[in-house]
TrEMBL record:
GO molecular function: acetolactate synthase activity; flavin adenine dinucleotide binding; lyase activity; magnesium ion binding; thiamine pyrophosphate binding
Protein's GO biological process: isoleucine biosynthetic process; L-valine biosynthetic process
Name of the protein in question: acetolactate synthase
Gene3D superfamilies documented for this protein: 3.40.50.970, TPP-binding domain (3.40.50.1220)
InterPro entries: DHS-like_NAD/FAD-binding_dom, THDP-binding, Thiamin_PyroP_enz_cen_dom, TPP-bd_CS, TPP_enz, TPP_enzyme_TPP-bd
NCBIfam families: PRK05858.1
Thiamine pyrophosphate enzyme TPP-binding domain boundaries: 157-304
Keywords tagged on the record: Amino-acid biosynthesis, Branched-chain amino acid biosynthesis, FAD, Flavoprotein, Lyase, Magnesium, Metal-binding, Thiamine pyrophosphate, Transferase
Organism (species): Mycobacterium tuberculosis
Record field: catalytic activity: 2 pyruvate + H(+) = (2S)-2-acetolactate + CO2
Length: 319
């Protein structure tokens, strides 16, 4: 993939566990310019991603964009919109063949996307230093990102809090991002983090959890402690099911079964099990708490109280 992108000068957007296939700081890697890139491209190569809700069932692409789909196998059902070509089989062979077929000058297009990317990042700057209490998720991730090593393994087990992680936490190597995929199952995080740390014991393994996700598998911290697996978790504790509450209220004007207990001390649960736990309630506490968690050498939780009024800005496609 990296050779294809570089040889053909193609801007690339990475989704889910494909993050890091091209380093996030590569000049051809984009994230904030996604809408412009997909909506205005003449041709889009879709590699290993079904045209499901993540791609608006094909609706994120421009009406005249020609789609080329590359995947290991043909889809079980027809694509939701016509494709110009389908390339099915070994992806390494497919991408290698495409990389060797010559390049085109896309510099003007790349510069347009770079401008859009910079403008979008500029709009986020105020959130990165937001001093509100409870904390803004963007402030949480701005502080965390500064402490992550380039090869850190990041595990996502959250709704809105995980979406903010997707925006703020970058991957630079393949296999550094683990999430639950399109089904969005909560509670998988501690198991993923356990396996990641056992497989790569010398690397940072960071588990990013919502408070709802902790309720599914919080007792796995007993497993982490018993086996001395020093995973560091950051919990975004906003006292709600944010991914359910905010969309329900936006769509229907009310929400049901979307409340959790505000301020629950998940950090004390982990401490009782033998791990390291800290509560963060104001921004100034966050960086020191994160540093102590990484230095503890124990399975650790930093339980951060986050603002329940903050809803991740997303576009819904419920059809």
């Amino acid at each position: 993939m990296l050779r294809l992108v570089e040889e053909r000068h193609i801007p690339v957007l990475m989704n889910g566990m494909a993050r890091g296939v091209v380093p996030a700081d590569h000049r051809l890697a984009f994230s904030r310019a996604r809408s412009k890139a997909l909506g205005e491209a003449d041709v889009a190569l879709i590699v290993g991603v079904p045209m499901d809700f993540r791609l608006g069932f094909g609706g994120v692409f421009g009406s005249t964009t020609q789609l080329i789909v590359a995947d290991r196998v043909e889809p079980a059902r027809e694509h939701p919109r016509p494709v110009a070509a389908g390339l099915y089989g070994d992806l390494t062979a497919t991408l290698s063949a495409l990389a060797g077929s010559g390049g085109t000058d896309h510099q003007g297009w790349i510069e347009e996307l770079a401008t859009a990317e910079t403008m979008a990042r500029d709009l986020e700057k105020a959130e990165l230093v937001d001093d509100r209490i409870p904390l803004h998720p963007m402030r949480v991730y701005a502080e965390l990102a500064a402490l992550l090593e380039r090869d850190a393994l990041v595990v996502i087990d959250a709704g809105d809090f995980g979406s903010y992680a997707g925006r703020m936490i970058d991957s630079y190597l393949p296999g550094c991002w683990l999430d639950s995929g399109p089904f969005g199952c909560l509670g998988s995080g501690p198991g993923y983090a356990l396996a990641a740390k056992l497989a790569r014991p010398q690397r940072q393994v960071v588990l990013l959890q919502g408070d709802g996700a902790f309720g599914f598998s919080g007792m796995e911290w007993d497993t982490l402690v018993r086996h001395n697996v020093a995973v560091v978790s950051v919990i975004g504790n906003n006292g709600i099911w944010g991914l359910e509450k905010h969309p329900m209220e936006a769509l229907y004007g009310y929400s049901v079964v979307a409340e959790l207990r505000p301020g629950t001390r998940y950090d004390e649960v982990v401490r009782a099990l033998g791990g390291h736990g800290e509560l963060v309630s104001v921004p100034a506490e966050l960086r020191p708490a994160l540093e102590r968690a990484f230095a503890s050498g124990l399975p650790a939780v930093v339980n951060v109280l986050t603002d329940p009024s903050v809803a991740y800005p997303r576009r819904s496609n419920l059809a």
